[in-house]
Write a structure and sequence with these properties.
The protein is α+β, with helices and mostly antiparallel strands. It has one domain: Hotdog Thioesterase (Thiol Ester Dehydrase, Chain A), CATH 3.10.129.10. Helices cover about 20% and strands about 35% of the residues. The strands form 2 sheets. Strands 1-2-6-7-8-5 form a 6-stranded antiparallel sheet. Strands 3-4 form a two-stranded antiparallel sheet. It is globular and about 45 Å long. The relative contact order is 0.21.
C-alpha cells in the first residue's frame, strides 16, 4: 500500500512498545529495525528457552513475534494508539525455525478507521526460507 505514510520511525515505535510493555525484559523484547510505508521489519534475538523438543523455535514464540510485528506496523502508521488490540491471528507453520535470531516482516494489507489487516512473514535462516506466515487483524480504538 504505497499511499500509506508512517507517523513514527523505528526509534519511535520501539519507544512506544517499551512504554506499552514496561515489565518486559529488554533482552526478551523484539526490536523494530525499519519502518517504511506499509511495512516494518522486526527482529527478536535468539535466547535459551525458545526451543521446543526437536530443536526448533516453538510455535508460541513465532505467534508472539507475528503479533508484535503487526502491532508495531499499526503503531507506526496510526501513532500512539496503545489500546489497539489483536482481533484475529491466523498462522501457517511452513517449516521448523532453526535456532537463531527470529526475523519478521509485516505488510499492511488494509488500514481502515477501525481495523488494520496485516500479513507477517517469519524466518530465522533467510527470507526465502519462511518458517511461518500469519494474517493478523488489529482493532483500532476510536479516538
Amino acid at each position: 500500500m504505497a499511499d500509506l505514510k508512517p507517523v513514527l520511525d523505528a526509534e519511535g515505535v520501539n519507544a512506544l512498545l517499551r512504554r506499552a510493555f514496561p515489565g518486559a525484559r529488554p533482552d526478551a523484547f523484539p526490536t523494530v529495525l525499519e519502518v517504511a510505508p506499509g511495512r516494518v521489519k522486526v527482529v527478536a534475538a535468539y535466547r535459551d528457552g525458545l526451543l521446543r523438543p526437536g530443536g526448533v523455535i516453538s510455535g508460541p514464540t513465532l505467534m508472539s513475534l507475528a503479533d508484535t510485528a503487526a502491532y508495531a506496523l499499526v503503531l507506526a502508521h496510526v501513532g500512539d494508539q496503545l489500546m489497539a488490540v489483536t482481533s484475529q491471528l491466523s498462522i501457517n507453520f511452513l517449516r521448523g525455525a532453526r535456532p537463531g535470531d527470529l526475523h519478521a516482516e509485516a505488510e499492511m494489507l488494509r488500514l481502515g478507521r477501525r481495523n488494520a489487516v496485516c500479513d507477517v512473514r517469519l524466518w530465522t535462516e533467510t527470507s526465502d526460507r519462511l518458517a511461518a506466515q500469519a494474517n493478523v487483524t488489529y482493532a483500532i480504538p476510536s479516538s
